[in-house]
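Lecture 7 notes: from sequence to structure.
We start with the chain below.
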Amino acid sequence: MSGSIPFCQKHHRQYDRGYRSKETESKVSRYQSSSSGYAAGSSSSAISRSRGLNLSSHSGLEASRLSPIPKRVKPSYLAVDKENQIIGYVVPIFRGSQEFATGLSNTEEARVRETAGYMARRDLFTSGLEMERTELTSRREAMRSSAERISLNKRIYEHEEHYKRINEDSLMHPPEFVIKPRSHTVWEKQCVRLHCTVSGYPDPRVVWYKNNVAIDPLSAAGKYKLESRYSVHSLEINKCDFDDTAQYRVSAMNTKGEQSAFASIVVKRFKGDIDGNLPEPRHGPVSEYGITFQTHIVDKFGVSFGREGETMSLGCTVIIYPALNRYQPEIQWYRDDVLLSPSKWAHMHWSGDKASLTLTHLNKEDEGLYTLRVTTKSGYETYSAYVFVKDSDAEIEGAPGAPLDVRCLDANKDYIIVTWKQPAIDGGNSILGYFVDRCEVGTNHWIQCNDTPVKFARFPVTGLVEGRSYMFRVRAVNKSGMSHPSRVSEPTAAMDPADRARMRGTSAPWTGQIIVTEEEPAEGIVPGKPLELRVTEATKNYVVLSWNPPGEKGLEGVMYYVEKCVAGTDSWQRVNTEIPVKSPRFALFDLAEGKSYSFRVRCCNSAGVGEPSDPTEATTVGDKLDIPSAPSKVIPTRNTDTSVVVSWQASHDAKELVGYYIEATIVDSNVWEPCNNKPVKGTRFICHGLTTGETYIFRVRAVNAAGLSQFSPESEPVKVKAAIASPAPPFGISILECVADSMVLAWKQPTFIGGADITGYFVDYREIKDGVPGKWHEANIRSVSDRAYRVSELKENMKYQFQVRAANMAGVGIPSLPSDTFLCEEWTIAVPGPPHDLQIREVRSDSLVLLWKPPVYQGRDPVNGFYIDIKEAEAPEEAWRGVNTKATEKAFFKIKNLKESEVYVFRVRAQNKAGVGIASVVTEPVTALTKPGTTEIVVDVDDDGIISLNFECCDLTADSKFVWSKNYEEITDASRLTVDTKGNKSKACFNAPAEEDIGIYSCLVTHTDGASSSFTLSEEELKRLLEISHDHKFPIIPLKTELAVELLEKGRVRFWLQAEKISANGKVDYVFNDNLVSQGEKYKMNFDKNTGVIEMIMESLTPEDEGTFTFQMQDGKATNQSSLVLIGDVFKELQKESEFQRKEWHRKQGPHFIEYMSYEVTPECCVVLKCKVGNMKKETTALWYKDGREIKADEHLSFTEGVLKLEISQRDIPADTTDYADRAIQRRLKVSKKDAGVYEVVLKDDRGKDTSTLNLTEQGFKDLMNEVFSVIANSSTPLKITSTDEGIRLYTFVSYYNDLLQVTWQYKESAISFSDRIKSGVVGEQLWLQITEPTQKDMGKYAIEFHDGKGGLKRTVELAGQAFDDAFAEFQRLKAAAIAERNRARVAGGLPDVVTIQEGKALNLTCNISGEPMPEVTWLKNDREICSDDHVVLKFASGKFASFTITAVNPSDSGKYSILVKNKYGTESGDFTVSVFNEEAGKKK
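Predicted structure tokens for the same chain:
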């Protein structure tokens, strides 16, 4: 690496020999003149040639050049190239013998030569064994030689070290650069190496610095490589980039002193077609992957506008093909060609397919041209757009905008110079000055640095604490108030540059000073005077002095005193009397403005104060920097629809120019707005965000630290619209027809027409002979407007190429690429040629319209139809498919059922009788997507009945035109359609709509992105529109309701209608039988114009009022009328109803019935007569009558809430009935035919009377009972099944039962014929059906139907299946139980409970016995069986009578006796007690 030179140094003229410093050149010449050349052998020559190096040695240099102390020579060796340039260093192993320079001895070289010749001969004549023996011998000799060389080298090193230890003091000397590093200019991504040779003893410690910051190789792994060998030191920088452009310093230090040397590295970018301001990576295939990447940036961000304090995100979608999962491109963002790094102000993000930059808190510093650069191994792609940042709203109205770009130019321990840029907005008043604030890093406490505002945009801040870091901000002020503070500066430390440079890890700007220090400074020496004192900056607020330290070295702790003197006097005054200054710079304040001063500086240290420096020239306190002059010649030029390019002539003799501010105003508005809020340095700027179609005037002013210049003269007005340029070349040249001497060409319109309509095309052609093209010839002198042209006078069977140029008002564009080569021979095919000029209109998400022109070549027969083909743009050729199965005769077609967002291409084929011809050229890809803002044609009929088609376009440009077509042919005849266009709206009005106007009407807006729409006017639509047009021409007043009649109270008659809409000027005429009627006693008219209600009221109708009533309305030119015919029966009914209503009104003036008498059957089957009454008072009486006889049962009348009630069954209940249950039963059962009759209730008092009658006879009573029956039926329970000992019973319960209720039992939907086996009956509220001795034939559906004179009610039950089986089993069980109960043994009666009998008497008891079979009889006494004997005779006669006889009782017969009867069905007993007494005992009692 040390011997190579960057290729850029070999191919650039600035890197010739003259580029070397004179010192280096003189040293090289001395090396060459004093060197003792070495005779290199063939091997060493081969090695040298292979490396491209020449080796030369140096035996000695002047002692004064190497070291002032020792008188000895240190040999060194230089590596030079063929041009004798030093490119490296070679230090030999042993100084004094060539053999150690080449690595071989003379004998060894001879041996090598012999061996080489011998091996060459051996290859031809010897065997393999001899070759192996020779190689083994050579290896042994080489190993022995290497061991000897290592041993000799060790002895030499030990000898030198011993000599140094003995003579150490005499050898010691400070470092000195024998060879200094030299500057390099390299290309980006290349490596560069800096070399230097340093002498000195002890061996100096070498440190490399970049911009005075020590380089640490570990901080950037792989970036830096430091090497030190044999006093040769190198710094290698790998893959240089922008940040490596810097000044590099190498410092060598030992105990005797320190020395430094400097070199600069400039990293350059490739030049060419790419952006010269941005770095360029290498191009070509990627060796790592073996592929070439294609990068596309889509979904780009446009020109953006923001406001201070807002957040803005810029982003683009990046498509890299082919896509590799783990491959990540390099994403870089630039602002004004300066690479951005992630910070708190800028966040960068890469998501794999989208690159975004987020500006978290916009400030005017963020304004500029932003560039996204995507770099892959194959190249890079960039995209740029401008970002504008406006001032935030001022807290105080009229306050200026915030300053910007606050920086620290010069930082010392005593002061820091802060600079900024003036804002573009002054708030309408001149800026009085600026206040500078400081804040110590780590705190939030801001301190104002100046008491009075400074106008100069630069200010030295003093009063800082040495070693601490500060941030600064600036505020502008005018007479209205203070601006917002600027963005804070980067932190800056208050310390001298020399101290900052010595700090590790802290970056400081290069100051241009080289400071050499010694470890042991001399003491007791008064320093000399400072050198080159000068005034570097002077304003009316302060003056900055700068000087160089005195030339003597070894001075201890030098500081400075500054003195001033008014010009013309010799009175010097010390400025810093208390604390001297350490740094060679100083800022003076509190100088009288306008006075002239001279300045001088003294050095001081512990030994004393030195002599003053030479005084400066008289300096007048004031701004040395003048405000720049105003720019001139402001020229605006059209750019786009929203931007204008403004150029101007730079300010004359402007010093330290910061840039320019551009302002714009709309003509006659007198409101100037800034176009940029950050100064631009060029003399050309694109002003964005302008309003299309408006006319603007521009002006420019310059700015530097002294302030803003006057405004330039105002520019000429310019209207904002897209600039006109010549069109792009056409493309897609194809052949439509070919004959013997001519061809018909077709081509596609240019993708860019230059902002103006294309006025025509020019066609050129050239011959192709044996593949060699000839000269181009013009085919047409005059431009052709169509995109098809016949080129004549061609040669048959000759090959031709064609090119086409488009022209507009800006000129003729560049020609298209040459077409394919076409052979001029006559077409003889039978099918048609290709259609041409395919155009796509009305693109929507699911449809579009395709237009074309018929083929020029018809074939043998005329064209009779067309077929359209479609396929996805990325699909293969096999994917073509037809759109229409039946050929269309028209030259347009609407393609439907497209997939949204899919990209399609189309082609058309013509057909004649011979078949389908050649397909047309494929259209450009089109995306099926409805663009935002797309509108459709709207049909409208105005108030005058004019039918119009209306189309509105939001994307209109200044040159756009609305083109109306019928059936996609432009309408040129204005006899049928009149077009009126105003602004972005166009209206096509039909002059006299008729059937000939039926068709498809479309509108295309030129100079837009395909804005178009169509409307189909069919026969039905035309008929509908004509009806609407007629209604608008001859309008009628719409009616919500036609004329109607209704009755009001008192029998008054109201005629009325309601108009849907009528104005306050509307009028109404009232007509009866063709005669106008007017307001009077008979007629009362009313017209409410708010609601549109029109009415006429008559008090009553008489026979003379029979006829036709008409209301006639008029509102402007709109009219309408409505009539109502009242004759015959219609009139009589209305008159009768009117009379009735009148009488009803009079009736209701006294007590009256609101609802007449009616009846109600309660759920308890009670019949209640009721009527609703009104207008009652205390004196009003209510009398009830039945069949003309008053019902005197007032205590039962009720009157609640205006309702009179009478319960029919109350009146006949006997008074002696007290039991409530009996009364309820009687009340339920008393509703019978006896209650039939005519009921009447009479209301009367002093105001009158009213009567209500209810007829409950015959049909009325029948209806009443039907209501009762309906209530009973609805109260019935579901039909259920139960079993008895006789059979199966079906039953239902009702809440109440009436004897008049009619029911029907049904079996299988037929009425049951009752018999002894099947019976029905009623028990209480239970209605039942008994089936005696049921059988399987009785299974089925049973129902009971209640009759109520209406639909009735039916309850059903299914007696079948399990239900029948369960019921039948239960019947059998009950039947068996009944038989057993009936036939079991019983003691029927005849036995007393107690028998008292006198002793000696006979006792005879008999009882009846029953049971089948005949029971067994057993008698018991005291629970012991007794048998018949003479004393007790027991008999059982006829199976029915059992007797018990005691012939003569005695006391022993007393006891309990029982008879027990028993058969198979059961057992029963009867008990009695016998008590025997004697006669004496009876007497005693």
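Points to note: The chain has 15 helices and 103 strands. The first strand starts at residue 54 and ends at 58.
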